[in-house]
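During data preparation, a discrete fold description was generated, and the record follows.
___
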Amino acid sequence: MTATLKVKIDGWENGAEIPGRFAFGVPAEEGHVALSDNKSPAISWSDAPEGTKSFAIICHDPDVPSSGEDVNQEGKTVPASLPRVDFYHWVQVDIPVEYSNLAEGEVSDGITPKGKAPGKRAYGVTGVNNYTDWFAGDPDMGGTYGGYDGPCPPWNDSIVHHYHFTVYALDVESLGLSGNFGGPEALAAMEGHILASGSYVGTYSLNPDVPA
């Protein structure tokens, strides 16, 4: 059994609604959704056990529709009964052990059409998030989305979405990942190396009939 890291995010209480400035999309009267500030939140962690050599951060939403058939379609609602899948919003590995926080806006400060490049940063190695898949084929937005990109759930979804920011303390300095790796690849590489972990959760909805 792994130990527990203490994880804190400035901007909302654990389990409460995520403010719009940390989101990719916010509600709009026309067109349902407007692009938002897309700032990465200030996140900090403590109580790493002895032997910790690096950290990793993964933010995922487990409430994403498994089928896009009804998503964002006028006159339709995504039913609560639809099976849900994971959508990764942030994959960060090989964070040096001397780090215990990342400042607001350090990883993302605005929406970058076609995405931010993944790769090595001072604060570790950035993977890709699932906006890479979501915008595939879109002439204006299609590209590789590295780093953090915030919530933008379907505006016609019948359920609230939950965003889990999980920090992992690892017993290796590097997971050896590079290129366009995502959440599943990072989690697979972490297997057997996790000394501790902790999560902080936020909720979000773009459906005016489904308050977060």
